[in-house]
UniProtKB/TrEMBL annotation:
UniProt name for this protein: Putative competence-damage inducible protein
NCBIfam families for the chain: cinA_nterm, PncC_domain, PRK00549.1
Gene coding for it: cinA
Domain MoaB/Mog: residue ranges: 6-174
Superkingdom in the source lineage: Bacteria
Protein's organism: Dysosmobacter acutus
Coiled-coil intervals, chain numbering: none
Family, similarity comment: Belongs to the CinA family.
Signal sequence, renumbered to the chain: none
């Protein structure tokens, strides 16, 4: 049986724009991986009447409802009470949760629990309890009239933890089928281009399926199969994924990986190599992305943010003649910056970015979106010229940092640069 889910986020702060609804993205991606269709997202303020109306609508068109938020101890945390009223359930006190909360307050906060937290231990009669070891609000799930209702906390890290720890097993138990998904991460080809190439193949597939998803400066293809066992699902996925690999080639940079920088770090570790950066328009973005990964110190020596030409010359050793003749935004300077990053850090590989992120042309008349990405290694120096046009500043910088990591990936795997 195919299931349809609806997400209801509760919180006035979401409607006011004070807080972004990150939970919706977390849950939609997770439900998609389970093969559960999400047809509606609803955001409701802390108002019982409007939440009741949203729940009544949702129960008529979906057989799974996931709510986020409104499970806390304050007067406006009314999600559980409203859901119980709509679905005809009573609330009951779970003394074990009260005891655990009191213990946590003493251990973590060194003070007694305030009595309003007892509200968090009130849960629907007969529900499946979702414990919350990283927060104070437990979640729960129950089924009433063929509709499964799952209540999750609002803070995104708690929501994601509880979804993976409790909601995923609960939802998997609703079907005897096993659903397996793999994500093919793609850089260097846009969503529309990939869709155009694979359109007829994607339309012809029913199980497994292929679905494109646009990401910031890149995209992914999710391949999903449903079968009686995981082994059967994998056997169904394998030929489809290989077919896609053959069609798209080296723009696929990994399967079930998190990012380009994650792939680069793994390749650098495999080859016992290090790299360093020299950045201008990206302002340290490449260095930031690699250092957000655990274990980055094994591969990343350091970086220089060289916005001014004086820094390019004085710190990185870019010859003043190149700066005067070609300008800071040029292929020769990008190459020299990459070589300088290698030289001053002792890294095996240097990566550089110099460009015009806007809003105006530079002093040499280079258009906004003109970027040069350089790579220097023991066996040569390369540069990739980019022209993004008058795109937004953040997109130019994000695209440029992705190109830098892709250039590094290609060098490390012997692909054409």
């Amino acid at each position: 049986m195919a299931h349809t889910a609806e997400l209801i986020a509760v919180g006035t702060e979401l409607l006011l724009g004070s807080v972004a609804n990150l939970d919706a993205q977390i849950l939609s991606e997770g439900l998609s991986a389970l093969g559960i269709n999400v047809y509606y997202h609803t955001v409701v303020g802390d108002n019982p009447e409007r939440l009741s109306a949203a729940l009544e609508t949702a129960r008529r068109r979906s057989d799974i409802i996931l709510t986020t938020g409104g499970l806390g101890p304050t007067y406006d945390d009314l999600t559980k009470q409203t859901i119980c009223r709509v679905f005809g359930r009573e609330l009951e006190l779970h003394q074990d949760i009260v005891d655990a909360l009191r213990d946590m307050f003493m251990r973590s906060f060194h003070k007694p629990m305030t009595e309003n937290n007892i509200q968090q231990a009130m849960l629907p009669v007969g529900c499946t309890v979702f414990d919350n070891p990283i927060g104070t609000a437990p979640g729960c799930a129950f089924c009433e009239g063929g509709v499964h209702v799952l209540m999750l906390p609002g803070p995104p890290h708690e929501c994601e933890f509880m979804f993976r720890r409790h909601a995923v097993p609960y939802l998997k138990s609703l079907s005897r089928d096993v659903i397996v998904s793999h994500d093919l991460r793609i850089f260097g080809m846009g969503e529309s281009e990939v869709e155009q190439i694979l359109r007829e193949r994607m339309k012809s597939l029913t199980n497994p399926t292929l679905a494109p998803y646009a990401k910031r400066s890149e995209m992914l293809l999710r391949c999903t199969a449903k079968a009686a066992t995981e082994e059967e699902a994998e056997a169904m996925l394998s030929p489809v994924m290989e077919e896609v690999r053959q069609i798209l080639g080296d723009v696929i940079y990994g399967v079930d990986v998190g990012s380009l920088e994650e792939v680069c770090m793994a390749r650098l570790k495999e080859r016992s190599l290090t790299f360093a950066t020299a950045e201008s328009c990206t302002g340290g973005m490449i260095a930031q992305r690699i250092t957000e990964l655990s274990g980055a110190s094994a591969v990343f020596r350091g970086g220089v943010v060289s916005y001014w030409s004086e820094v390019k010359a004085g710190v990185l050793g870019v010859p003043r003649q190149l700066l005067d003749e070609y300008g800071a935004v040029s292929e020769p300077v990008a190459k020299a910056m990459a070589e300088g990053a290698r030289a001053i850090t002792g890294a095996d590989i240097g990566l550089s970015v110099t460009g015009v992120a806007g809003p105006d042309r530079d002093e040499r008349g280079n258009e906004v979106g003109t970027v040069f990405v350089g790579l220097a290694a023991p066996d040569g120096v390369w540069c990739k010229a980019l022209s993004y046009g008058a795109k937004r500043r953040d997109r130019i910088r994000g695209n440029a940092s992705n190109v830098a990591f892709d250039l590094l990936r290609r060098y490390l795997t012997g692909l054409p640069l």
